[in-house]
Amino acid sequence: MSPAFKMNARVFVLLLFSSLTFATNFNKITKVFSWKQISYDIKGVLYLNDTQYERSESSIYFDQELDDSEKYFIQYNNVPIGFEVYGDRVFVTVPRRRHGIPSTLNYVQLGGPSSPTLKPYPNPRWSKLLVSTYRPRVDSCDRLWVVDTGLLEVPDARKQLKPPAIIVFDLKTNKQIFRYNLKDTDLVNERTAGGLTSITVDVDPKSCADAYAYINDLATNGLIVFSMRERDSWRINHSSFNHDAKALNFSVAGNVINWKDGIFSIALSDLNSNGTRTAFYHPLVSTQEFSVDTAFLKDKSKSIEGNVKILGNRGPLTQSGSHVYHNGTRTLLYANVAQDAILCWNVDKELKPENVGIAAQDHKQLVYISDLKVSGDDVWVLVNQIPRFVYSSLNPGENNYFIHRAKIEDLIKGTVCEKK
Ligand SMILES: *[C@@H]1O[C@H](CO)[C@@H](O)[C@H](O)[C@H]1NC(C)=O
Ligand SMILES: *[C@@H]1O[C@H](CO)[C@@H](O)[C@H](O)[C@H]1NC(C)=O
Ligand SMILES: *[C@@H]1O[C@H](CO)[C@@H](O)[C@H](O)[C@H]1NC(C)=O
Ligand SMILES: *[C@@H]1O[C@H](CO)[C@@H](O)[C@H](O)[C@H]1NC(C)=O
Ligand SMILES: *[C@@H]1O[C@H](CO)[C@@H](O)[C@H](O)[C@H]1NC(C)=O
Q: Distance, CA 293 to ligand 4 centroid (Å)?
């Protein structure tokens, strides 16, 4: 074989490979877990399906007044929505938006089965202490932060069982560090609790005691700030937290989404030269991105009015849920629900459609990325197809829920987000 021919063959293979990559660049992604349906292991009792578990007083969770058919485990109703990664543990939340959910905050172990049973975190007792949790967060001080909305969010049977609260666990000892009930002034009305779907933690690198948490309220359009040192919280309103009517009606898995979800995700930059961070945020129903310096969030005497920046527009069908900033590559990664994709944007570039890349896309295994996290240089996603659950039905016989991971360098390679 002549060297020239060898070279051509290599180019040909490369071209073929990159065109395949372009068609469905899902090959950058490693499947970690997949589930047809969610099952649990609670105190050694397995909840494998609607019939295979022990029906006893101790397996009733909050719903004592219900009929027998409603108050125990109803497997189909268990839809995972949020997650977080710490060492060899992956936390998986199942908000109580229907009856029959035995535990809202759970974990599974990496390196075991590909469809593991969920165990309540930190222990079985907590399956009854927490009402409903969405997207938790691990901070740089080995702590797990969760918001318990306190709301049994079952359609036509909503019950606020406890005040919404921030609960923080020590991941080394698996003990609660503190619980903080949000104040009445943090909340607008009875809908607010159901909108507290994520928490972002801003820790002073020099002191774990100096931490702030930012909670999005997508239901009544606000941001709640919590100061760990002051043990105090306050609410911020701003018009940029509202959904954009022009971005309504995108579709997922053939279902038109008419949710009017406001501010959905808050992503923090690394420390700026002046010791604060940039908080990037967007409503779910929007194609814009906004930012504000955390100096204006952390000081309750300051207003963000006049300090919010409209960074730009990501382009059509870029409606996204969770997003996270990765410092090493200076990119934001988005759970883009309107295109079954992970989007990227390098924050050093102007935010406009040409500068937003599709880092991965798959119309089967990335259908509704419900949560996205960055751990080191890995990007993790939890996929749950929730529009199918809400508008039609999931097929319990096939894989419905996924957790995938990818190296960030692989994800952005060949996209506009790659640093040249
Ligand atoms: C429930 O799980 C058990 C054990 O895996 C199995 O034998 C049984 O057929 C399942 N029942 C249903 C209704 O799926
Ligand atoms: C935010 O807006 C809500 C609804 O209009 C209002 O009830 C609440 O008092 C406002 N809170 C602050 C801190 O501005
Ligand atoms: C979304 O759908 C509603 C109801 O069909 C319609 O009134 C509205 O104009 C639509 N908006 C957009 C931006 O498509
Ligand atoms: C902090 O620095 C960043 C850039 O490094 C700047 O955008 C921001 O406005 C500064 N914040 C304050 C409160 O001065
Ligand atoms: C973030 O990246 C910058 C360089 O872009 C680096 O100087 C800084 O140390 C990084 N921060 C962390 C926490 O790794």
A: 6
Rounded average pLDDT over 347-370: 97
Confidence band of 62 (pLDDT split at 50, 70, 90): low
Ligand 5 centre and the CA of 269: distance in Å?
10
Is pLDDT of 265 > 50? yes
Cα 332 to ligand 3 centre (Å): 29
Task: Please give the angle made by the CA atoms of 372, 373 and 378, to the nearest 5 degrees.
Answer: 115
- Do domains 1-35+239-420 and 36-237 share one topology? The answer is yes
The response to whether residue 125 sits with its C-beta less than 6 Å from ligand 3 reads no
Residue 251, ligand 3, Cβ within 6 A: no
Answer whether residue 353 shows pLDDT above 70: yes
Report which ligand 2 atom has the smallest distance to the Cα of 189: 7
| Distance separating alpha carbons of residues 419 and 56, to the nearest angstrom | 58
**Residue nearest to ligand 2 atom 9, measured at CA:** 188
| Residue with CA nearest ligand 5 atom 14 | 327
Q: How confident is the model at residue 200 (pLDDT cuts 50, 70, 90)?
A: very high
The residue-averaged pLDDT of 274-297 equals 97
pLDDT band at 72 (very low <50, low <70, confident <90, very high): confident
Ligand 1: atom nearest CA of 49 is 1
pLDDT at 355: 98
Tokens at 84, concatenated: 């977080």
Domain ranges of the chain: 1-35+239-420, 36-237
Tell me: pLDDT of 374 over 90. Answer: yes
Please give the pLDDT value at position 410: 96
Q: What is the CATH number of domain 1-35+239-420?
A: 2.120.10.30
Instruction: Using the predicted structure, report yes or no on whether residue 396 has a pLDDT greater than 90.
Output: yes
Topology (CATH level 3) of domain 36-237: Neuraminidase (2.120.10)
